[in-house]
Amino acid sequence: MPPLVDGLAGMGNVALPRALRLTATAVADLLAGVVGGAPKYVPLSVGPDSFGVIATTDALTGLHRLTPADGDPWPNRITARSLLDIVVHRPVRAAHRIQCPLLMVVAETDTMAPTGPATQAAARAPRGELYRSRGGHYDVYADGVDHSDVLRVELEFLTRHARSARPSAS
Fold first, then answer.
1. Is there a domain that residue 84 lies in?
2. Do the beta carbons of residue 62 and residue 107 sit within 8 Å?
3. What single string gives the DSSP state of each residue in the chain?
4. Does any domain span residue 1?
5. Number of domains in the chain
6. Taking Cα atoms as reference points, which of 101, 53, 100 lies closest to residue 75?
7. Number of other residues whose CB lies within 10 A of the CB of residue 76
8. What is the full per-residue pLDDT of the chain (170 aa) written as tens digits?
9. 54 close to 24: Cβ distance less than 8 angstroms
């Protein structure tokens, strides 16, 4: 999935009324959890006019692409309290310390994850690499416009770095 490496920046893609409603729901869920209440769930992927975490024009397409083909149900929900963690999740700030190879697949027209922080993470990581995928956030998955190329790039990346990580024969 195209990377959300700066949760705070990701909030910029959320309309203020929805952000406030999600935040209020998350805080209420967190407080309920403190006193032993059951988690409150919110839908993850919904249409643009519905209440949920990802309410973009392509969210339902993404939901379809992520649903297991074998018919197993996929719970399209997340605990509301976990949304508070997403906002403070900002690994882009530590990218310069990542020592392992890092491949960032960043969509050209992502409606969910801001592309700037992801491209910055690739540039800041000492062994970072960037691939700009065609299409939107969900076009890296099966039936997406760049699925095949993303698989090829990922396989080349893994093959290249697996070879360099092998101990040499003595």
1. yes
2. no
3. ------HHHHGGGS-HHHHHHHHHHHHHHHHHHHTTPPPPEEESB--TTS-SSB-STTHHHHHHHHS-TT------EEETTHHHHHHH--GGGGGGG--S-EEEEEETT-SSS-HHHHHHHHHHSTTEEEEEESSSTTTTSTTSTTHHHHHHHHHHHHHHHHHHHSPPP-
4. no
5. 1
6. 53
7. 18
8. 568 899 888 888 888 999 999 999 999 999 999 999 999 999 999 999 999 999 988 899 988 888 888 878 888 999 999 999 988 989 999 999 999 999 999 999 988 889 999 999 999 999 999 999 999 999 999 999 999 999 999 999 999 999 877 666 55
9. no
Q: Which residue range(s) make up the domain with 67?
A: 7-164
Decide: pTM greater than 0.85: no
Q: If you search the block for the tokens 């018919």, which residue do you land on?
A: 71
The C-alpha atoms of residue 68 and residue 10 are separated, in whole angstroms, by 26
Does any domain span residue 147?
yes
Residue 34 in any domain: the answer is yes
